[in-house]
Specification:
CATH topology: A middle domain of Talin 1
Order of helices and strands: HHHHHHHHHHHHH
Radius of gyration: 21 Å
Number of strands: 0
CATH superfamily: NCX, central ion-binding region
Number of domains: 1
CATH class: Mainly Alpha
């Protein structure tokens, strides 16, 4: 008779299954109610737990379908959360949410291209020296991200059909179709004919092609075995349940977030930053974990895939929703934001061209991320 598992082991084993269900239960109990400080804190804890469960189920699915499909699954899942949050807040916010989509999408771009990439590079460099990745795959991902970002977030400042930083109806439709098309073409390229550009790069100096840490990691993964089809399907349903819970609980938390931002004296636009930080927590954890396993290409797939999906899927969803949403839709970035986007583009190109990077490049990206957060608080 085997000994019972320790309590911590049982919690670690069961929480991915329990957390999504718990999240939905808490959502049903709190939806549409005015919550005090204690219930808000409880909802926040449950929200973080559900996010971690979503990461687990996305990684199970990723293990089943392989890379780069796994990164794509998590990127799309995170974007579904983001789109759901933006739409639910815009429906109830009126004119004061005119810039919410822009602020959230731009925050997602800065968090992924600077925050997640920077953390991953530093984590990988501290453990493995000089992380390597595929410059062709990472470069094409960056080019697509910058194209959809410029098309959707920069051009509205220079068009003349509508006043201010807004698109006219036909222009918004074109930006939506163009962004979605670029995202779809990239996905077909990443998962089809040129899939090898997006697979992890191994160390050529090692005869087997793999460093000792990566050998241990792969051996452990093989010992654990690829998840069965049934387990992957269960994880898919639990992931969908977790996404519903995250979107709903974040909506429940949104008044507290807005009140906290106002109480701190921060600009209203910082709400979009907070939303993006919450939504991209799964990507951040998964990317840093991959970097520590010397899978830097996987980290970049996650980062740029999320940035691309955030823009390429959010803008079309907002364009469709604008048919029934009232109030203006401001997509054009401000001057400071455009400078940060331009600087991020230049630094990212210089980081990716060699196909390898050090912790210096990671520190540069993290500094740009810190500048973005600071200027969001103190514009």
């Amino acid at each position: 008779m085997s000994a019972p598992r320790p309590l911590t082991s049982r919690i670690a084993h069961d929480y991915p299954v329990v957390a999504p269900v718990l999240g939905v239960v808490v959502l049903l109990l709190t939806w549409g109610r005015d919550l005090g400080a204690v219930p808000v804190a409880v909802v926040a804890v449950v929200l973080v737990t559900v996010v971690l469960a979503a990461v687990h189920h996305a990684e199970v699915i990723a293990h089943r379908v392989g890379e780069p499909f796994g990164s794509l699954v998590l990127a799309v899942a995170v974007t579904v959360i983001e789109v759901g949050l933006i739409l639910t807040l815009m429906v109830s916010g009126g004119d004061k949410t005119a810039t919410l989509a822009r602020d959230t999408v731009f925050a997602a771009a800065m968090i992924t291209m600077n925050g997640i990439v920077g953390l991953s590079l530093v984590a990988g460099a501290l453990r493995h020296g000089v992380p390597r990745f595929n410059a062709e795959g990472a470069g094409s991902a960056l080019a697509t991200v910058l194209s959809v970002a410029t098309l959707s977030l920069v051009l509205p400042n220079f068009t003349t059909s509508s006043p201010g930083a807004q698109f006219s109806g036909p222009q918004l439709a074109f930006a939506a179709v163009g962004s979605a098309a670029l995202w779809l073409i990239f996905v077909l390229t990443q998962t089809g004919r040129h899939r090898e550009f997006f697979l992890p790069v191994t160390d050529d100096l090692d005869p087997p092609g793999l460093g000792p840490d990566l050998q241990d990691e792969l051996a452990a993964a093989e010992e654990a075995g690829t998840p069965t089809r049934r387990r992957a399907l269960v994880s898919l349903w639990l992931l969908l349940l977790a996404l519903v819970a995250v979107v709903g609980l974040a909506k429940v938390e949104s008044p507290a977030i807005e009140d906290g931002v106002a109480a701190a004296g921060f600009p209203q636009s910082f709400v979009g930053v907070v939303i993006a930080l919450v939504v991209l927590l799964p990507e951040t954890l998964a990317s840093v974990r991959a970097a520590r396993r010397n899978l830097m290409q996987t980290s970049l797939n996650l980062a740029y895939g999320s940035a691309m999906a955030s823009i390429g899927l959010t803008v079309p969803a907002i364009a469709v929703a604008s048919i029934w949403l009232e109030g203006p839709l401001v997509l054009g970035l401000g001057p400071v934001q455009m400078v940060l986007l331009l600087l991020t583009a230049v630094v990212s190109v210089l980081t990716l061209v060699p196909g390898r990077a050090t912790r210096l490049e990671g520190a540069v990206h993290l500094t740009l991320f810190a500048a973005f957060v600071f200027l969001s608080i103190n514009p």
